Amino acid sequence: MREDGRGDRVVGSPWATRSPVLATNGMAATSHPLATQVAIDILKKGGTAMDAAIAANAAIGLMEPTGNGIGGDLFAIVWDPVTKKLHGINGSGRSAKGQSLSELKVKIGDFEYIPDWGTPSVTVPGTVDAWFELHSKFGKLKMTDNLAPAIQYARDGFPVTELIAYDMDYYQKRFPRIFKAGGVVEEIDNYKKTFLINGKSPKEGEMFKNPDLANTLEKIAKNGRDAFYRGDIAKTMDSYFRRIGGPLRYDDFASHKSEWIEPVSVNYRGYDIWELPPNGQGIAALQMLTILENYDLKKMGHNSADYLHVMTEAKKLAFEDRARFYADPDYQTINIDYLLSKEYGKERAKLIDFKVAATKVEHGDPKLIEGDTIYLTVADKDGMMVSLIQSNFYLLGSGLVPDGLGFMFQNRGAQFSLSENHPNAYAPGKRPFHTIIPAFITKDNKPYMSFGLMGGSMQPQGHAQMIINMIDFEMNVQQAGDAARFRHDGSTSPTWEGRMDDGGVLVLESGIKADVVKDLQARGHKVHVSNLNFGGYQAIMRAPNTGVYHGASEMRKDGQAQGY
């Protein structure tokens, strides 16, 4: 990776890119241009990178409800220039304390998995508490200042972008009804009142308002996190779930608390790559890197058949461990040090056949056991860098909008397993497996890059690709995100519903050459060419020799990087 942050213009792929955004006083990169503007305005008012990140996240929760909102969870990694270290927070919520696995199975009836929509999939939203935890440690402005832009946009309205208009129309057709206790279904009236305009999903350029959300955010801004978890909002949520037959109760909200955690890392070719430990999937990206470090990827060539083959096979191996071992650490203990060791990476790399795609892989040695999303990043003039990811999980979420509050509950609980012997099995008061993962890179104990790539199981694969693009192929921060990607689907699920036994499907973006596709097919890969669902990347890199921020926001989203 070049120390000035630049990369060669020709990267061996017929794929468009543009220059990174450069600045010194601050930088923000989000998936929505108006949210990026909100973050920059907060920085200019004297706010820290954390103030700006919270403000941007609140704005995106309004403007991009297809991916996130205060009904979801949040994870973040923060470089603190004062302590000169990384801090991690797990802002994920738990399942209802008053519902057992057997009771859940009765509720879902003939389903062999937890439905994505309705009450069975809902867990306590963790975002608001995480905001206040992060703000108390790293914020400077008042929360009323940080939430004011989102409140104003919610009241006055904003024009819906093309991508969000498309997604809202597509998603809302997927759940015209919600799941209710006893197998009964009812119309999702609150969703319609909140997110539809004259009974239809918003069109591109149409002004969208959410006065209920404005009122909710205003209460939170004035009265703090307890307004959400212990005050009127919590009481409304309790009443709502009682009315529709859901399991969450006031005590589930009142007892919620985020957890400060230590990020974990591997060293990849001289750079320390940081992720958060389970219940998230971040260490899958690190496992991929420990396997791939055993190959000369640069010599293979970017997006060559050899390169894509070993990348895909490494993903299969890492994801088999992900399915078997990753779960709420309060319920499952794994030896992360061994899982991320170079020794284990070498052992797993030996399982890759260079000529044949694996149809089935096994998880690692049992000694490992000891007992739709948004991403944004902000950096400020003092050197604080925030890597933040937040999600409602699948599609818009559960379909459930509490009475008069203007947001949708996440459906993260659909990621629990119904197999009682699996580490990720549903249990009362437990955090489900999580897909959302922020990432960070340091070099010589100094901050180098804050980045993320949203999109379910694409995330670890995407993280590994971004890191390799920059380190092995010396792309700049923008080129790394714009380069054509691969995605492998079909690995064993964290819910343990069916093991991979057919090799899955290797999905390639159209920028990858036709002869490469044929070569991969000859090795046994089932290849599908598509330009959909390859995630969304945002990043801020700080050049070590100048301190200049290089911001990137990729072409696959509406987003924007901006500095000042």
Structure characterization notes:
The chain is α+β, with helices and mostly antiparallel strands and 564 residues long. It has 2 domains: 27-257 and 374-379 and 386-413, no CATH class; 260-371 and 436-535, Orthogonal Bundle (Serum Albumin, Chain A, Domain 1), CATH 1.10.246. The chain has 19 helices and 21 strands. α2 packs parallel to α5, α12 crosses α16 (342-349) and α14 (305-325) packs across α19. The longest helix is centred in the middle third of the chain and has 21 residues, at 305-325. The chain is globular and about 60 Å long.
Mean pLDDT: 90
| Distinct helical segment count | 19
**Widest β-sheet, arrangement of strands:** 1-20-19-15-14-11-10
The number of strands is: 21
Strand content: 15-25%
Q: What is the helix fraction of residues, given as a range?
A: 25-40%
Give the helix/strand class.
Answer: alpha+beta
Kindly summarize this structure in a few lines.
This protein is α+β, with helices and mostly antiparallel strands.
Strand-helix topology:
Elements: E1 21-23, E2 26-30, H1 33-44, H2 49-63, E3 73-80, E4 85-91, H3 101-108, H4 127-138, H5 143-156, E5 158-159, H6 162-172, E6 177-179, E7 185-187, H7 189-195, E8 207-208, H8 211-223, H9 225-229, H10 232-244, H11 250-254, E9 259-261, E10 264-268, E11 271-275, H12 282-292, H13 297-300, H14 305-325, H15 336-339, H16 342-349, E12 373-380, E13 385-391, E14 439-443, E15 446-454, H17 458-471, H18 477-482, E16 486-489, E17 505-508, H19 514-522, E18 527-529, E19 536-542, E20 549-553, E21 560-563
Parallel strand pairs: 17-18
Antiparallel strand pairs: 1-20, 2-12, 2-21, 3-4, 3-13, 4-9, 5-8, 6-7, 10-11, 11-14, 12-13, 14-15, 15-19, 16-17, 19-20
Helix pairs in contact: 1-2, 2-4, 2-5, 5-8, 12-14, 12-16, 12-17, 14-19
